[in-house]
Amino acid sequence: MAARATVSPAAKRAPAGKAPLLDAPIVLDAGDASQDRGPLGAHMSVAGGSWEAAPRAREVSATAMQIFTKQANRWAEREVDAVEATRFREALSATSVRWCCAHDSYLINLASPMPELRERSVLSFRAELRRCHALGLDALVSHPGNFIDDRPSGIARNADGIIEALEAEPGPTRLLMELTAGQGTVLGSTFEEMADLLSRIPSALRGRMGVCLDTAHVWAAGYDLINAYDDMWTRYADTLGFASLGCLHLNDSKARLASHLDRHDLIGEGSIGADVFRRIMTDERLTHVPKVLETPKGDSPAETDARMLHRLRSYAAGL
C-alpha cells in the first residue's frame, strides 16, 4: 500500500455474515437510540451490496452509518447505477439512520509527487465522489495523503487534487478531511496543517468541505484528551472553528499519547479511557455532531458494535 501507512480496523475485521432482514425484530441491546441527540453509529459492512449495510445498522440501532462504496484496498472502480441507488435509499429509509457517510479508498494519495500515482488518485477520488452523490450520502471522509518529498509541496498537491475533483464532480456530499496520527510522511496531524490545507480551497468550494476528528488519531498525534481536553477543543475552535467539524470517529487507542501510531481499541478499554468518551458524549458543543465507531469488530461484529453503542449511550445518559 504505497499511499497509506496504516489500515483502519474496519478493513481488518472478519467478513460480515448475511445481513438480517429489515423487518426482523431487533434483538441486540445497543441502548435507546431514540435518545440520541445527534447521529450515532458505526462503520458497516457492504458485503452483498451497498444496500445490505442498512439492515446491519438497524440491527445495532444505529442512527449514523459509515460504509465503503468499493473495495478499499483495490484500484478497481465501479459506478452506482439508478437501480442500486434506489435500493440503497429504500433500505436506509427503513432504518433509524439519519446521517450516512463513506470512507474513501486507502490507495488514494492526492499529495503524491509521483505523477502516475497522483493522476490515478485524482481519478479514483472523483469516482468516489460520484458514488457518494449517487447514493445520496451526507459526507465522504478522506485522509490527507503522504507527501513523501516535502510537506509544503505535499499540501499544495493535496489541495490542487481536491479542487480538481470537487470542480469536476458537483453534488450534495460534503468532503470531510480526517485528522491523522502523523505517522511517517502523512499530512494532516495538526489543526494548523489542516487549516493550511483548507485555506487553499477556493471559497466557492469550501462550503462543500469540513473536518473529521478521530479520537485515536489526535491522541496519537499528541493532543492530550485526558489532561488537556478543553484546551484541545479551544485550540480546534481557534484554528478550524466548530462549524468545520462534520464528524467524529470515536475510537479508543492501543497506542501511547504522541506515539504517531494508528491503533484503534474498544471504547473505554484503551489508553484514552472511558472518562474522555463520557466527556465527549455529554459535551454540548458536540451534541449534534455525527459520531461513528471504527473500533475492532472481533468475531461478532454486530454484538461488538451493539455493546460499544450501548456504552456510549450510557455515557450520554450520565451513567
Automatic annotation (TrEMBL):
Keyword list, A-Z: DNA damage, DNA repair, Endonuclease, Hydrolase, Metal-binding, Nuclease, Zinc
Single GO BP term: base-excision repair
EC supergroup of this enzyme: hydrolase
GO molecular function ontology, one term from the record: DNA-(apurinic or apyrimidinic site) endonuclease activity
Names of the cofactor(s): Zn(2+)
CDD domains in alphabetical order: AP2Ec
Cofactor descriptive note: Binds 3 Zn(2+) ions.
Entry binding sites for Zn(2+) 1: H103, H143, E178
Alphabetized SMART domains for the sequence: AP2Ec
Binding of Zn(2+) 2, residues: E178, D214, H249, E294
Alphabetized InterPro entries for the sequence: AP_endonuc_2 (IPR001719), AP_endonuc_F2_Zn_BS (IPR018246), Xyl_isomerase-like_sf (IPR036237), Xyl_isomerase-like_TIM-brl (IPR013022)
EC number: 3.1.21.2
Reaction(s) catalysed by this chain's protein: Endonucleolytic cleavage to 5'-phosphooligonucleotide end-products
Annotated residues for binding of Zn(2+) 3: H217, D262, H264
Domain Xylose isomerase-like TIM barrel residues, every copy: 57-309
Family membership noted in the UniProt record: Belongs to the AP endonuclease 2 family.
NCBIfam families xref list: nfo
Function of the molecule: Endonuclease IV plays a role in DNA repair. It cleaves phosphodiester bonds at apurinic or apyrimidinic (AP) sites, generating a 3'-hydroxyl group and a 5'-terminal sugar phosphate.
Protein name: Probable endonuclease 4
Provenance organism: Gemmatimonas aurantiaca
Encoding gene (name): nfo
